[in-house]
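Severity: low
Component: inverse-folding endpoint
Summary: output formatting inconsistent between runs
Steps to reproduce: submit the following C-alpha cells with default settings.
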C-alpha cells in the first residue's frame, strides 16, 4: 500500500497515490445488459477527476462548499465524488428514491453551492435548488449525458489535489433520527481515510484482488467502504449499475471480493448459477447494513463453501466492527466468523456496552453500545446541541444500538434504536412516516413498526386510528405516502384499528404491535 502523504491529508490524494504504476490497466469495467461493457483505465479516472475538479474550481465556490448529488449509479457519478474530494469541497450524496419534499429539506438545510441531478429531474430539482439560493445546477445521466460532462470536457486534465487537514470536512450523509428530523453526519478526510486503511489490512486486501461492485453509491456501504477498498488497493472493479443475481453469479469466477446487504445474498441463493465452482476464485464475501439471518449464513456456506464475513457500521462512523478475515492477535488469534455476530471492534476502535445508569456492563449483558475512534464523525451539521447530546463526557458516541459482547470478545447487535426498521439494507425511521400519515385527512394517529420479511429482512406496517366519524382506506393512505416519500420507506401493509395499545404512561406499546402483526408480511 502507498505511503501516507503527511503534507496533504486529502482522502483523494491517498487514493490516487495507491493507483498502480501501470495507469493504462483497467480500473473499472461496466456490465451492460445489451452488449460488452465500458472499460475505464486508471489514467481515465485520473484525467476525468482532474477535469471535473477543475470545473468545480472554475466556479469560484466558497471554502467548504457542499456539492449535493442525486443521480443514478454510474462510473461518472463515482468520478464526481472523487472530483469533489480532489477539489477540496464537501460531497453530499442523496438517495435516488428521495421525492421533492425530502430534497427540499436537504437542500434547504445543507445550502449546497452546487446541485447535480438526473436529466429527467432537472425541472423540479432545479426549481427547489434555485429557490434555496443554489447558484449552480448541473445534470448527469447514467448514459454519460448531461451538462456536467459537457462543461467538464472543456477543462484541463491536470489538477493538483487541494491541500486538506485530517479534520477537514469531506462529506455529509443525512441520516434520519427517531424524531423524524434528518441529521447531516459530518465525516472528515481523516475519518474515512483511517477507516479505509484499517479495512485494507483487516480484510487482507492483496495484489490481484477484483471487486464486484453491485451496491448503490449514495450511502456508506457502496460509496465509501467498497470504492475506497478497491481504489486504495489498486483493484479492478466489475461495475453493475443495478444488482442482478444472475449477472453477479456469472461474474464471480473473475472476482475475489463481493460486498452486499443480506437481501442480495438471499436473492443470489435463488440463482442456479451460484455454485462452489463459480465461487472457486472468491476470497471474501462481506455482508452488512442489516442483520444477516443465520439461515442465510448457513445456506451460503453450504452452497458456496464460503463463510460470509459480517461487519457493523453506521453513517456516523463508517465501519466499527468486523468478524475476522484471518487470526486476530488481539483476541487470542481467533479467526472464526460467527453467524449472528458482527465480530470484534476494528483496530483503533474502542467499544463499550453501558446500562441505563451509565456504568459498563459485564460480559454477556445487553446494553447501549458506545464507540470511540478516529473513524467517528465530527458531529451533526448545524446541530451543536444534538451533537453534544449524542456524545458522552469522555468522548464516546452513543450509537443508539443495543447489544452485548461475549466472553470471547464477539459483538452481537440485539437491536437498533427501538423504532428503527432496516429494510433491504436501508434505514427507515417510523417517526418520519408517522408524521406524514398523521397529516392525511381522516387520520387521528398512527404507529409504524417493523415486522420480519424473508427478502428484505424487515418491512414496515402502518397501524392507523381514524378520526371519529371518518372512514379511511388503507390503500388510499399508502398511495398518498407514495407521492411524498421514497419507495423503500413506504409500509408494505396498512391496517386501521379502533385504538393503539398504550402503557400506564400513555406511551404506545410498539412491542405489542410488532408481535401482533409479525406474520402479516410473511
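Observed output (run 2 of 3):
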Amino acid at each position: 500500500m502507498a505511503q501516507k502523504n503527511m503534507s496533504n491529508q486529502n482522502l483523494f490524494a491517498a487514493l490516487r497515490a495507491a493507483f498502480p504504476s501501470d495507469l493504462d490497466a483497467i480500473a473499472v469495467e461496466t456490465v451492460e445488459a445489451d452488449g460488452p461493457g465500458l472499460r475505464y483505465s486508471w489514467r481515465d479516472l485520473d484525467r476525468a477527476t482532474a477535469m471535473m475538479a477543475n470545473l468545480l474550481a472554475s466556479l469560484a465556490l466558497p471554502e467548504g462548499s457542499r456539492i449535493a448529488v442525486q443521480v443514478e449509479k454510474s462510473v461518472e457519478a463515482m468520478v464526481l465524488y472523487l472530483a469533489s474530494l480532489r477539489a477540496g469541497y464537501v460531497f453530499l450524496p442523496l438517495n435516488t428514491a428521495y421525492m421533492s419534499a425530502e430534497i427540499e429539506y436537504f437542500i434547504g438545510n445543507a445550502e449546497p453551492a452546487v446541485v447535480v441531478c438526473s436529466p429527467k429531474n432537472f425541472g423540479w430539482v432545479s426549481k427547489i435548488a434555485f429557490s434555496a439560493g443554489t447558484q449552480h445546477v448541473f445534470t448527469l445521466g447514467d448514459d454519460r449525458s448531461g451538462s456536467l460532462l459537457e462543461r467538464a470536457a472543456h477543462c484541463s486534465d491536470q489538477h493538483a489535489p487541494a491541500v486538506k487537514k485530517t479534520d477537514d470536512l469531506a462529506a455529509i450523509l443525512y441520516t434520519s433520527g427517531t424524531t423524524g428530523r434528518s441529521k447531516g453526519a459530518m465525516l472528515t478526510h481523516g475519518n474515512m481515510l483511517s477507516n479505509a486503511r484499517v479495512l485494507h489490512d483487516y480484510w487482507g486486501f492483496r495484489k490481484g484482488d477484483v471487486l464486484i461492485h453491485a451496491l448503490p453509491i449514495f450511502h456508506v456501504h457502496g460509496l465509501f467502504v467498497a470504492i475506497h477498498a478497491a481504489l486504495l488497493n489498486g483493484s479492478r472493479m466489475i461495475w453493475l449499475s443495478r444488482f442482478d443475481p444472475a449477472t453477479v453469479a456469472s461474474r464471480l469466477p473473475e472476482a475475489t471480493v463481493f460486498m452486499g446487504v443480506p437481501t442480495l445474498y438471499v436473492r443470489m441463493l435463488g440463482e442456479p448459477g451460484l455454485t462452489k465452482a463459480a465461487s472457486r476464485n472468491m476470497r471474501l464475501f462481506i455482508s452488512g447494513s442489516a442483520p444477516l439471518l443465520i439461515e442465510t449464513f448457513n445456506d451460503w456456506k453450504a452452497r458456496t463453501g464460503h463463510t460470509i464475513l459480517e461487519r457493523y457500521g453506521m453513517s456516523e462512523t463508517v465501519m466499527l466492527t468486523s468478524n475476522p478475515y484471518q487470526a486476530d492477535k488481539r483476541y487470542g488469534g481467533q479467526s472464526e466468523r460467527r453467524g449472528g455476530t458482527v465480530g470484534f471492534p476494528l483496530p483503533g476502535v474502542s467499544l463499550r456496552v453501558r446500562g441505563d445508569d451509565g456504568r459498563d456492563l459485564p460480559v454477556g449483558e445487553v446494553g447501549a453500545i458506545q464507540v470511540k475512534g478516529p473513524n467517528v464523525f465530527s458531529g451533526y451539521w448545524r446541530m451543536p446541541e444534538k451533537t453534544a447530546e449524542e456524545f458522552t463526557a469522555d468522548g464516546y458516541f452513543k450509537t443508539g444500538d443495543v447489544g452485548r459482547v461475549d466472553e470471547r470478545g464477539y459483538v452481537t447487535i440485539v437491536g437498533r434504536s427501538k423504532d428503527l426498521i432496516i429494510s433491504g439494507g436501508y434505514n427507515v425511521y417510523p417517526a418520519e412516516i408517522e408524521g406524514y400519515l398523521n397529516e392525511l385527512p381522516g387520520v387521528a394517529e398512527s404507529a409504524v413498526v417493523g415486522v420480519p420479511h424473508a427478502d428484505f429482512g424487515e418491512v414496515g406496517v402502518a397501524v392507523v386510528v381514524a378520526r371519529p366519524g371518518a372512514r379511511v382506506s388503507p390503500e388510499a393512505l399508502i398511495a398518498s405516502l407514495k407521492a411524498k416519500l421514497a419507495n423503500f420507506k413506504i409500509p408494505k401493509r396498512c391496517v386501521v384499528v379502533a385504538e393503539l395499545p398504550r402503557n400506564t404512561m400513555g406511551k404506545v406499546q410498539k412491542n405489542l404491535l410488532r408481535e401482533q402483526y409479525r406474520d402479516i408480511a410473511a
